[in-house]
Amino acid sequence: MNAPPDPTDFRDAMARFASGVTIVTTLDSGGKAVGFTASAFSSLSLDPPLLLVCLQKDADCHAAFMEAEQFGVSILAQGQSPIAARFATKAIDKWDGTPSEPGRATGIPLIDGAAARLECRVHSRPDGGDHTILIGEVLTAESNGNEPLLHYNRSFGRFAEDSRA
């Protein structure tokens, strides 16, 4: 059996995969809003509607997500990279100046102007190495036609159609 890849090589290879950018939010046991930036996000199932997002175990908000029964996902739109950067930073007030509103089903804060927003009930939390995989049953889903913010090669950007397609 081969040895696992060098962590730097693995990170560099994964940086070549373009993804959307999400802010995942919940309320801690005291009712305080917490959240994190995630690009490791995917739909999982249509019936029932499930999604998954990966949360680093050493994240400031990990304990809150382990206790929470609900969470929200805001798929960020173009122009929201400062929000993505803010929610990826440890030990700061991530909500200072971040426009949000409570979700209609859960009351979990969702980011204003996001390309899409979903509210979820926790389905399960399987282990994923140095991450916890949050699997959510989608309760509400809305989108507004805004162009999504993309993450590629450690930078934020936008989608450009391949004219050869």
Describe, in plain words, how this protein is organized in 3D:
- The chain is mainly beta.
- It has a domain at 41-144: Pnp Oxidase, Chain A.
- The protein contains 3 helices and 13 strands.
- The chain has helices at residues 7-14, 62-67, 81-87; strands at 19-20, 22-27, 33-38, 41-45, 50-56, 70-75, 100-102, 109-111, 116-124, 127-128, 131-143, 150-152, 155-157.
- Strands 2, 3, 4, 5, 6, 9, 10 and 11 form an 8-stranded antiparallel β-sheet that branches.
- The chain is globular, with a radius of gyration of 16 Å.
- It starts with 6 loop residues before the first helix and ends in an 8-residue tail after the last strand.
- 29% of the residues are buried.
- The mean pLDDT is 94.
In short:
With 165 residues, this protein is mainly beta.
CATH structural class of the domain at 41-144: Mainly Beta
Query: How many β-strand runs?
Result: 13
List SSEs in N-to-C order: HEEEEEHEHEEEEEEE
Q: Percent helix among the residues?
A: 10-25%
* Oligomer classification: single chain
Radius of gyration: 16 Å
Q: How many helices does DSSP assign?
A: 3
Task: Please mark out the parts with pLDDT under 50 across 5 or more consecutive residues, or reply none.
Answer: none
What general form does the structure show?
A: globular
CATH architecture heading of the domain at 41-144: Roll
Give the N-to-C terminal Cα separation: 40 Å
The biggest sheet amounts to:
8 strands, antiparallel
Strand content: 35-45%
Tell me the CATH superfamily of the domain at 41-144.
Electron Transport, Fmn-binding Protein, Chain A
Structural class assignment: mainly beta
